[in-house]
Design brief:
single chain; about 110 residues; alpha+beta; 4 helices; about 30% helix
Length: about 110
């Protein structure tokens, strides 16, 4: 299973201007009892952060919204060359829709 976390806060200027309500998105891979958050830092650099369920609750208290997607992280999941947090998340859930470019559009698409 993959948990996708959406945040309405960011420190970057461009997402504040053009992204709508949701400003950032990050996929969280669930591997047994271990959770790994793939945090997009900048172009070509993704940081892996280990989490616990307690951390998910804390993030929820700070305004994050979570969508649970019943698919597994692909074996060939490659974080090199990603340009945005949305592109990273679309790669994690194997979405090929080129019209989804903002976290808000992705949230509206998969929350159904």
């Amino acid at each position: 299973m993959i948990i996708i976390g959406f945040s309405d806060k960011t420190r970057k200027i461009l997402p504040r201007i053009c992204c709508g309500q949701m400003k950032h998105v990050a996929p969280i891979a669930v591997r047994g009892a271990e959770l790994v958050l793939y945090q997009f830092v900048r172009r070509g650099h993704v940081q892996q952060i280990k989490l616990k369920m307690r951390d998910i609750k804390i993030l929820g208290a700070y305004g994050w919204r979570f969508v649970y997607v019943p698919c597994a992280l692909p074996q060939e999941f490659d974080t090199h060359g990603v340009l945005t947090c949305v592109q990273l998340t679309k790669r994690a859930i194997k979405m090929k829709n080129i019209w989804i470019q903002t976290p808000n559009a992705l949230y509206n698409r998969i929350k159904i």
